[in-house]
Amino acid sequence: MSLSIESKIKLNSGVMIPAIGLGVYQAQSGGETRNAVLHAIKAGYRHIDTAKFYANEKDVAAALRQADVPREHIFIATKLWNDDHGYDKTIKACNESLKRLDLPFVDLYLIHYPVRKLRHESWRALETLQDEGKCRAIGVSNYTIRHMDELLQKSKTVPAVNQVEFHPYLYQKELLEFCDTNNIRMEAYSPLTKGKKLNDPKLEAVAKRYNKSSAQILIRWALQHGLIVIPKSTHAERIRENADVYDFEISPEDMDLLNSFHCNYRVAWDPTNEP
Ligand SMILES: NC(=O)c1ccc[n+]([C@@H]2O[C@H](COP(=O)([O-])OP(=O)(O)OC[C@H]3O[C@@H](n4cnc5c(N)ncnc54)[C@H](OP(=O)(O)O)[C@@H]3O)[C@@H](O)[C@H]2O)c1
């Protein structure tokens, strides 16, 4: 599989998304986020995943202004927070995110979580925002097959992506197949299990075979499954390490082995029972 740090994936709206991005959840507002984004850009990342909830959109903007790379070369994604659902509130929330990001449009706007009752109204607002050119692509996050099915039945627009927790310990195979069938790209969030499984001896044994770190194996595994991957770090050397995954390939046998780690282990939200 020929992957590189410049690899991009075509979304159903025609927009190209860089396959690796920097996540900035829990990067502190101010210098921490700004420096993480600048380190990432220096290391070759061209995609940043933020959200209103992360309270660091304005720091991402500050880094973009400081970076030596034209804005149009960097893919910016942000998200609608749960308190902002409903048609009018969604339009307002997106405009406020654009203001904080100091941008006329974002590359991707996501519904952060399938908030009950209101999520469809909010989706209609995302369609409007896309028509108005304020979002180049629109998508969802934390949607299960049930939530996706409901959306596909009610809407004329197929979401470009579904961003969900995805790593070998939560190998969401059926959801991935569903998304592939419907031309929806999946994005792997918490691809490093927030660091919690990096010392799992089973994973370390695989990493040793490739002379790579556990983090690099997890990122490469998700990329080889065809996902967009958004690891978070605020440390320059880890940001570089997480993008140094293009000089090896996990064998089919080891992909199967990693797949077999699945144990329904979650480090973030479980939307399974969200009505
Ligand atoms: N849509 C959603 O609901 C949702 C939910 C969760 C996350 N996300 C997105 O996905 C991104 C990534 O997920 P995440 O932040 O939950 O977790 P993650 O990327 O799985 O893990 C991040 C943790 O791993 C550490 N780490 C990073 N690289 C490492 C390395 N090479 N070696 C050892 N430790 C390493 C980081 O520490 P340091 O920072 O100290 O290096 C941090 O504690 C988020 O930032 C956010 O953009 C979205």
Summary, kept brief:
By secondary structure, the protein is of the alpha/beta class. It has 10 helices and 10 strands.
Description:
The chain is of the alpha/beta class and 275 residues long. It has a single domain, classed as TIM Barrel, CATH 3.20.20. The protein has helices spanning 31-43, 57-66, 87-101, 119-131, 145-154, 173-181, 201-210, 214-224, 236-243, 252-259, and strands at residues 8-10, 16-18, 22-23, 47-49, 75-80, 106-111, 135-141, 161-165, 185-189, 228-229. The strands form two sheets. The chain has an eight-stranded parallel sheet. Strands 1-2 form a two-stranded antiparallel ribbon. Helix 4 links the parallel strand 6 and strand 7 (135-141). The N and C termini lie far apart (39 Å). The site of NADP nicotinamide-adenine-dinucleotide phosphate has 30 residues, from helix 9.
Secondary structure layout:
Blueprint: E1 8-10, E2 16-18, E3 22-23, H1 31-43, E4 47-49, H2 57-66, E5 75-80, H3 87-101, E6 106-111, H4 119-131, E7 135-141, H5 145-154, E8 161-165, H6 173-181, E9 185-189, H7 201-210, H8 214-224, E10 228-229, H9 236-243, H10 252-259
Parallel strand pairs: 3-4, 4-5, 5-6, 6-7, 7-8, 8-9, 9-10
Antiparallel strand pairs: 1-2
Helix pairs in contact: 1-2, 1-9, 3-4
The structure holds NADP nicotinamide-adenine-dinucleotide phosphate.
Descriptive key words:
alpha/beta, 15% strand, globular, 275 residues, binds NADP nicotinamide-adenine-dinucleotide phosphate, eight-stranded parallel β-sheet
